[in-house]
Design goal:
By secondary structure, the protein is mostly beta strands. It has one helix and ten strands. The chain has one helix at 3-16; strands at 20-27, 30-38, 44-49, 55-62, 66-70, 84-91, 97-101, 107-112, 116-125, 134-144.
């Protein structure tokens, strides 16, 4: 799914803001039904692609919020696994969020900085020996405007009364 596609879906979400939104989405190979469910008490979107049944989660933060992400490393059968050294966190949003990883690298505080979309990644070394074999976990974060707390008023030029 492209960034533009995700932005379009989120725009629809923010317009409707209902517990479950169904969108028809046109891809180059045809239409795909996308279901977006919102978790109650938190703005967290879960995208489900109908054709594949795959779910993609996008964390949605207001510009004055932060969230802690944790990573769990798994083997091919879904069992807990270890990585060598301290995992490294990064973001590809060009400053949309600020990352503050924990000392052990297993969690990271993600703070919203500016409105936009970022992909946060955590890279670990799956080779427990001398070599390096990177394993990467990613998550998407959308930063939206926060709740209004003030406003401004602009006046036009004065005009004569009639």
């Amino acid at each position: 799914m492209t960034d533009d596609a995700m932005d379009d879906i989120l725009d629809e979400l923010l317009k409707q803001y209902s517990p479950e939104v169904y969108l028809m989405y046109r891809m180059p190979n045809g239409e795909i039904l996308v279901t977006l469910r919102l978790h109650p008490m938190a703005v967290r979107g879960v995208l489900t692609i109908a054709e594949t049944g795959k779910e993609f989660t996008m964390e949605i933060l207001a510009s004055d919020q932060k969230v802690t992400a944790t990573v769990a490393w798994l083997d091919a059968k879904g069992n807990p696994a270890k990585v060598d050294g301290i995992p490294v966190w990064a973001e590809s949003g060009g400053g949309v969020v600020t990352l503050a990883p924990a000392a052990d690298g297993m969690s990271c505080e993600i703070a919203a900085d500016q409105i936009g979309t970022a992909q946060v990644s955590c890279t670990g070394d799956a080779d427990l020996g001398e070599g390096t074999r990177s394993v990467v976990v990613t998550g998407d974060v959308q930063v939206v405007a926060g709740e209004a707390v003030s406003g401004s008023m602009t006046f036009g030029p004065p005009e004569p009364q009639e």
